[in-house]
Amino acid sequence: MSSDMIIKSEFNGSPHIGVFCLLNDHVAFVPYSTSPKFEHLLKAEFGVSVVRTALAGTSLLGIFACINNSKIIVSDIIEKEEIKVLEEHVSEVVQLSERYTALGNLISLNDHGAVCSRYLKNVEEIPANRIRIADSDLIGSAIYSNNHGFLAHRDASQKELEEIHSVLKVKGDIGTLNFGDPLVKSGIIGNKRGVIVGKNTSGPEMQRVDEVFMLK
């Protein structure tokens, strides 16, 4: 089933919705400060339960975690009470002990596979393929992926796109969001029903999102 909608929105005035929120086909994890309007959007249009929480005591959920439909991957700095909240709504919570704790910036995954930064050493449990993209090791920031496609940093090479495709088993392309931001993960969240992009996303950027995720 392909997705069928693109919505432009913001999170508490910020176009960087992917920094604050995590979304799969079943649940949205959002900060405690989430507005009722944004919560209603997630419930009504994306068909998910909305769970308010913090990660590492912050509202930066998309920085400290990444998610697919069966698991959420977090750093071992996440607090015990936060882990309990995650465990109530996701089948598997994977805690990685790594020097670098902003795992949302370092891993991109869907239900088929995962790619990650070379900075990470203990990814066998996921498992994930270590790659670079556009001369960057911030794989989780440079790629947004779900079960329908992936959008990658505008400077990603064709070879890199093919490598991502071979792991995630979905097609993708390069692009930007929020009027030229190449670190696309910060400007988008989505699931099987569609995607939300940051309010500053331009018309041509929206068109690329439509092409990549087959929103018909």
Show the helix and strand layout.
Elements: E1 6-9, H1 17-20, E2 22-23, E3 27-30, H2 36-46, E4 49-52, H3 61-64, E5 65-67, E6 71-75, H4 80-87, E7 92-96, E8 107-109, E9 114-116, E10 129-130, H5 139-142, E11 143-145, E12 150-152, H6 158-168, E13 172-174, E14 188-191, E15 194-198, H7 203-213
Parallel strand pairs: 1-15, 3-4, 6-7, 9-10, 12-13
Antiparallel strand pairs: 2-3, 5-6, 8-9, 11-12, 14-15
Entry summary:
With 216 residues, the protein is of the alpha/beta class. It has seven helices and 15 strands. Helix content is 25%, strand content 25%.
Question: How would you describe this structure to a colleague?
Answer:
The protein has about 220 residues and is α/β, with parallel strands linked by helices. It has one domain: 5-stranded Propeller (L-arginine/glycine Amidinotransferase, Chain A). It is built from seven helices and 15 strands. Strands 1-15-14 form a three-stranded mixed beta sheet, with helices on one face. A hairpin with a 3-residue loop joins strand 2 and strand 3 (about 25-30).
